[in-house]
Amino acid sequence: QVQLVESGGGLVQAGGSLRLSCAASGLTFSNYAVAWFRQAPGKEREFLAAISWSGGSTSYADSVKGRFTISRDNAKNTASLEMNSLKPEDTAVYYCAASRQVRVPTTPGRYGIWGQGTQVTVSS
Predict the structure, then answer these.
(1) Does residue 64 contact residue 51 with C-beta atoms inside 8 Å?
(2) β partners of residue 6
(3) Predicted pLDDT at 102
(4) Helix or strand holding residue 23 (H, E)
(5) CB 22 within 8 A of CB 51
(6) 64 with 82: CB under 8 angstroms?
(7) Cα distance between residue 98 and residue 90, in whole Å
(8) Quick one: which of 94, 91, 116, 115 has its CA closest to 11?
(9) Beta strands 68-73; 78-83: pairing state
(10) Could you say which residues of the chain have pLDDT below 70?
(11) pLDDT value at position 30?
(12) For residues 53 and 90, is the Cβ–Cβ distance under 8 A?
């Protein structure tokens, strides 16, 4: 069965850092683009970052560009999101997703495989 499992969330102080991980199973990981999204209560799911099949191309939302870094290790079937200079507004449930699209999409509807999410809370 195809699964994505996020981990690494938690409570951090503003200005701190966290690294989220996404472990994939049941799929040929290198054939999928991977993205990170987040969703806070009462808000729409928000695109954060995406990375292409081989890791050669990345895309970031303006809100996190320069603070977050997406990466992947196809040999380990994992993707990561390194988050620095965290702000209280970053508080949300963070999700990883996978897509077979050649071009890296930034909309949730183009991703067919989703993890269950991991909570990130940034205190002020």
Answers:
(1) no
(2) 22
(3) 78
(4) strand 18-25
(5) no
(6) no
(7) 22
(8) 91
(9) antiparallel
(10) none
(11) 92
(12) no
Average model confidence (pLDDT) across the chain: 96
Task: Tell me the DSSP string of 36-93.
Answer: EEEE-TTS--EEEEEE-TTS--EEE-TTTBTTEEEEEETTTTEEEEEE-S--GGG-EE
Burial class of 40 by CB neighbour count within 10 A (0 to 12, 13 to 18, 19+): middle
Distance from C-alpha of 32 to C-alpha of 3, rounded to nearest angstrom: 13
> With b meaning 16 or more CB within 10 Å and e meaning fewer, what string describes 84-96?
eebeeebbbbbbb
Sort 22 into a burial class: Cβ within 10 Å, 0-12 / 13-18 / 19+.
Answer: buried
Structure token pair of residue 75: 């040999």
Return d(Cα 22, Cα 78) in angstroms, integer: 5
Two tokens at 119?
């909570």
SS3 of residue 31 by DSSP: helix
Round to whole Å and give the CA distance between 115 and 27: 13
For residue 29, the 8-state DSSP code is G
